[in-house]
C-alpha cells in the first residue's frame, strides 16, 4: 500500500527526518535495510573504550533518541535502563555512534542492559522507524508503547519485588490451564472462485498486496484459512488481524479448530487490549520467539516481532477501528502493507466493502483484486427493501411493514436482528414545558439517558464524550415541571418496546453497555448462535464478522443519521455499515430479508444498496472525490488544538498557519493548501475547547516533506500559547 524511503539519522546535528513516501509500491528502496536504523554487521569491531549509543525513549521531545555511553558494547535492539532527568526509564538502543551529538561530559551512562529477551529484531526497528517518520512522532513514542507493559517498566526489574524481571517471574508461574479438547474441523471443499483466490495467494513468493473483495457470506474466511495452512506447512508464521476485540473469540475458535492438527494448542496466540499485562506478555513472548505460529490480534498486533512471518491477513480492512485515535495515530492496515513489503511477503486485505483508498489501488493495479461474487453456501443474497417513513406513523421507531415482517419470521422460528447504532435509552431528556434538555456541563453535547432497571433510582444521564454521570432529575432544573420526557430512542428503549410488543420472544441486546464485563460479549453471542435468542437488538458490534445460522430478517432503524453528516466519508461509512449488517441475513436461511427505514429512499447510497452494488457505489463515489480533490486523490493532515478557551485554540492555529506561510512558503508553491481554522463539531469536551486546521496536498511526498519541516516548530509555539496540539496524518474524521 505504501512506498517509503524513510531516513532518520539519530546522530545528525539537526535531528531531521527525510521521508519520501508514495502509495502503490512502485518506487520503494531496493534495500529495505536502509531505513535509518543502523544494522549489525557480522564481524564488526568496536575498539573505543567508551561506547556511544542512541537510545529511544518514550518522551515527546525531538526525535525521541538520546545519547548515552556504556563501558561495554551493546547490541542494537537491546532494552536498557537509563536515567532521564530525575527518573529512570527503559529505552531501546537503536544506534552506535563515533561520538555523541552533545558535550560528552553531559552524556550519562547506561545503568543496565536487559537480557531477559532477545534484542528486538532489525525489521521491527525498521517498521517503528517508518511509523515514527510518516506519522510525525518521536521514535521512542512508537517503540516503547508497542511493547507489553512489564517490558517497559523499571519497577519490574529493580526493587525487592522484581525477582529477576517479568519474564523470569512469568516462567515460574503455574502454566495456564489447558484449553478444552477440540475436534478438528472438517475442511470444506472450496468453490471455483475461492480456489482461484487461494491459488493466487499461495503462488506468491514475494511481496504482493491482494484485495479480497467478496460479497457477505462468500467464504473469505475459508480463503484466509487455506492460505494460512499453506504458509504454516512451509514453516512460516501468519499474522491474522481483526478490527475489534469482540471478533477475536469467534475467530479464535475457528482457527483453533482448523489448526489443531497442524501444530497443537501452542500454534495460536491472541493479542488485544482486553488481556491483562501478564497474559499479553505471555502471548507476545510465544509469538516473538517463534513458538506460536499464528497470531490473531487487533491493530496493536502489527507491532509484534515475528521472526518467521510469511503472510499477513487483514480482515474487514475498511474498518475504522484499524486507525488508532490517540497517542500514535497510525493505521494498522497501512502498516501491514508496509511490513509486507519490507519483509517481501504477501498481504491479504479482505472486505465486502473495501475502503475507497484500497479500491482505488486495485483499480490502478497496485493491488491484485480477487473477487468472490457468490455466497459460499447455496443461498442467495438477502432481498433488501426500503420503507419510506415520511408518511408513516411509527411505533417507537418501527414501521408497520417492519413489525409485520418480524411477526412472520418469529412465527417461522427464525431470528430477527434490529440494528440501531445508538446505545442507551434515549439520546436526550427534555422538559415539555420550557424546552430544557439534558446538556453535559463539561461538553457541548447532550447527556444520554440510560436505564439500569425498572426502578427510577437506577436511571442515570451519561455523556459519551467525557464520561460524566448524573442522576435523572425529578423535575426540570429550569422551570420545576415534573413532566420530563425522553426524546428519540436508543437500543435500551427498543429492547423495552419489543419486550412489550412480542412478549413470547426471547430478546437480547448487544452494545457497549451490555458487554462491559469481561466475557459478556462472548456469552451473549454464544446464546444467539445456540438459538436461545429470537430478537437481537444491537449496534455496530453485531454488524460484521458474525455468522448467525437462523437469522432471516434484519431491520435497520435511523439509517439517515449518517446520511448528511459533515464528514465527506459519511456516505462511504453508511454504505459499508448497511452492507455489512444486511449481510448477516440469510446466510443459512433461504429468502433472507433486509428492511431499511428511511426518509430519503432516492439517495444513491440506498439505491446502490438495493442492488448490492458496491462496484457502482465505489465508482460513483470516486468520481465525486476526484472532481472536488478529496482523498484518495489528495493527502491530508489535521492539526488539532486544545485550550481553556476556543479563542486560544484558534489563535494557536492561526499562528501555526502564518508560521508555515512565512517560513515554508516554498511548499505553498508546491501544492500544499491550508484551510481556515475552525472549531470541532463537538467544541468542548471535559472543559477543554477544541479547534482544528486542515492541511492538504495532491502530492504525498511534498506533504510529508512539509510536515517534517513544520512539525518541530509546533511544539515551542504550543508551549508559548499554552495550548496542547496534535498532528494527525491521514485523518479519518475531519
Structural key phrases:
single chain, 734 residues, alpha/beta, GIY-YIG endonuclease, Rossmann fold, 4 domains, seven-stranded parallel beta sheet, six-stranded parallel beta sheet, 18 helices, 22% strand, globular, disordered N terminus
Strand and helix map with partners:
Blueprint: E1 2-8, E2 17-23, E3 51-56, E4 65-70, E5 79-84, E6 87-97, E7 112-113, H1 122-134, H2 140-143, H3 166-172, H4 192-202, E8 209-214, H5 220-233, E9 237-241, H6 248-263, E10 268-271, H7 277-288, E11 294-297, E12 309-315, H8 332-343, E13 347-351, H9 356-363, E14 368-372, E15 383-388, H10 400-411, E16 415-419, E17 428-431, E18 448-450, E19 460-462, E20 469-471, E21 484-487, H11 491-501, E22 507-510, H12 520-529, E23 535-538, E24 551-556, H13 570-582, E25 593-598, H14 604-610, H15 614-628, E26 635-643, H16 646-663, H17 665-668, E27 672-674, E28 678-685, E29 688-697, H18 700-721, E30 724-729
Parallel strand pairs: 8-13, 8-14, 9-11, 9-12, 10-11, 12-13, 15-25, 16-23, 16-24, 22-23, 24-25
Antiparallel strand pairs: 1-2, 3-4, 3-6, 5-6, 5-7, 17-21, 18-19, 19-20, 26-29, 26-30, 27-29, 28-29
Helix pairs in contact: 1-8, 4-5, 5-6, 13-14, 16-18
Amino acid at each position: 500500500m505504501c512506498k517509503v524511503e524513510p531516513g532518520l539519522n539519530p546522530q545528525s546535528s539537526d535531528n531531521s527526518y527525510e521521508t519520501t513516501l508514495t502509495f502503490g509500491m512502485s518506487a520503494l528502496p531496493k534495500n529495505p535495510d536502509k531505513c535509518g536504523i543502523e544494522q549489525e554487521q557480522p564481524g564488526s569491531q568496536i575498539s573505543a573504550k567508551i561506547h556511544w549509543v542512541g537510545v529511544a525513549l518514550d518522551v515527546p521531545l525531538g526525535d525521541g533518541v538520546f545519547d548515552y555511553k556504556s563501558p561495554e558494547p551493546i547490541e542494537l535492539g537491546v532494552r536498557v535502563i537509563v536515567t532521564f532527568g530525575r527518573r529512570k526509564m527503559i529505552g531501546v538502543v537503536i544506534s552506535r555512534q563515533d561520538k555523541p551529538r552533545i558535550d560528552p561530559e553531559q552524556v550519562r551512562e547506561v545503568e543496565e542492559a536487559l537480557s531477559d529477551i532477545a534484542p528486538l529484531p532489525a525489521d521491527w526497528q525498521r517498521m517503528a522507524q517508518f511509523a515514527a517518520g510518516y506519522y510525525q512522532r518521536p521514535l521512542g513514542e512508537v517503540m516503547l508503547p508497542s511493547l507489553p507493559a512489564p517490558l517497559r517498566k523499571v519497577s519490574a526489574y529493580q526493587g525487592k519485588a522484581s525477582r529477576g524481571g517479568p519474564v523470569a517471574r512469568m516462567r515460574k508461574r503455574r502454566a495456564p490451564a489447558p484449553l478444552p479438547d477440540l475436534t478438528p474441523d472438517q475442511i470444506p471443499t472450496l468453490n471455483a472462485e475461492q480456489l482461484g483466490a487461494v491459488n493466487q495467494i499461495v503462488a506468491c513468493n514475494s511481496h504482493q498486496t491482494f484485495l479480497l473483495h467478496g460479497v457477505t457470506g462468500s467464504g473469505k474466511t475459508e480463503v484466509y484459512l487455506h492460505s494460512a495452512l499453506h504458509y504454516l506447512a512451509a514453516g512460516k508464521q501468519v499474522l491474522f488481524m481483526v478490527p475489534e476485540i469482540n471478533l477475536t473469540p469467534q475467530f479464535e475458535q475457528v482457527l483453533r479448530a482448523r489448526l489443531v492438527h497442524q501444530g497443537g494448542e501452542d500454534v495460536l496466540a491472541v493479542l488485544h487490549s482486553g488481556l491483562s499485562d501478564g497474559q499479553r506478555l505471555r502471548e507476545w513472548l510465544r509469538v516473538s520467539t517463534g513458538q506460536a505460529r499464528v497470531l490473531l490480534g487487533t491493530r496493536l498486533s502489527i507491532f509484534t516481532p515475528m521472526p518467521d512471518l510469511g503472510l499477513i491477513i487483514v480482515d474487514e480492512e475498511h474498518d475504522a477501528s484499524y486507525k488508532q485515535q490517540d497517542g500514535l495515530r497510525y493505521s494498522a492496515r497501512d502498516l501491514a502493507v508496509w511490513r509486507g513489503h519490507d519483509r517481501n511477503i504477501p498481504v491479504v486485505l479482505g472486505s465486502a466493502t473495501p475502503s475507497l483508498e484500497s479500491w482505488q489501488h486495485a483499480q490502478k493495479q497496485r493491488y491484485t483484486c480477487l473477487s468472490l461474487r457468490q455466497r459460499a453456501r447455496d443461498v442467495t443474497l438477502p432481498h433488501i427493501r426500503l420503507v419510506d417513513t415520511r408518511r408513516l406513523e411509527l411505533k417507537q421507531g418501527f414501521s408497520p411493514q417492519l413489525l409485520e415482517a418480524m411477526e412472520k419470521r418469529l412465527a417461522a422460528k427464525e431470528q430477527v436482528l434490529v440494528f440501531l447504532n445508538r446505545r442507551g435509552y434515549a439520546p436526550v431528556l427534555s422538559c415539555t414545558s420550557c424546552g430544557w434538555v439534558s446538556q453535559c456541563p463539561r461538553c457541548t453535547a447532550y447527556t444520554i439517558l440510560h436505564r439500569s432497571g425498572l426502578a427510577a433510582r437506577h436511571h442515570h444521564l451519561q455523556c459519551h464524550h467525557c464520561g460524566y454521570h448524573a442522576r435523572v432529575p425529578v423535575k426540570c432544573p429550569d422551570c420545576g415541571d415534573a413532566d420530563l420526557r425522553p426524546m428519540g430512542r436508543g437500543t435500551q428503549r427498543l429492547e423495552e418496546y419489543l419486550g412489550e410488543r412480542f412478549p413470547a420472544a426471547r430478546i437480547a441486546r448487544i452494545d457497549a453497555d451490555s458487554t462491559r464485563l469481561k466475557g459478556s460479549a462472548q456469552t451473549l453471542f454464544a446464546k444467539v448462535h445456540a438459538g436461545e435468542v429470537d430478537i437481537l437488538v444491537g449496534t455496530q458490534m453485531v454488524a460484521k464478522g458474525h455468522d448467525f445460522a437462523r437469522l432471516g430478517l434484519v431491520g435497520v432503524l435511523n439509517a439517515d443519521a449518517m446520511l448528511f453528516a459533515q464528514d465527506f466519508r459519511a456516505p462511504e461509512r453508511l454504505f459499508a455499515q448497511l452492507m455489512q449488517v444486511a449481510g448477516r441475513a440469510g446466510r443459512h436461511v433461504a429468502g433472507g430479508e433486509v428492511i431499511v427505514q428511511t426518509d430519503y429512499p432516492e439517495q444513491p447510497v440506498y439505491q446502490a444498496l438495493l442492488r448490492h452494488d458496491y462496484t457502482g457505489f465505489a465508482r460513483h463515489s470516486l468520481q465525486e472525490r476526484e472532481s472536488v480533490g478529496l482523498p484518495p486523490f489528495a493527502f491530508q493532515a489535521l492539526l488539532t488544538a486544545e485550550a481553556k478557551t476556543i479563542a486560544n485554540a484558534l489563535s494557536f492555529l492561526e499562528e501555526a498557519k502564518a508560521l508555515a506561510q512565512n517560513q515554508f512558503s516554498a511548499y505553498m508553491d508546491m501544492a500544499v493548501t491550508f484551510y481556515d481554522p475552525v472549531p470541532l463539531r463537538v467544541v468542548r469536551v471535559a472543559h477543554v475547547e477544541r479547534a482544528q486546521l486542515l492541511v492538504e496536498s495532491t502530492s504525498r511526498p511534498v506533504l510529508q516533506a512539509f510536515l517534517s519541516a513544520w512539525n518541530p516548530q509546533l511544539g515551542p509555539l504550543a508551549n508559548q500559547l499554552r495550548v496542547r496540539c496534535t498532528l494527525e496524518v491521514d485523518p479519518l474524521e475531519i
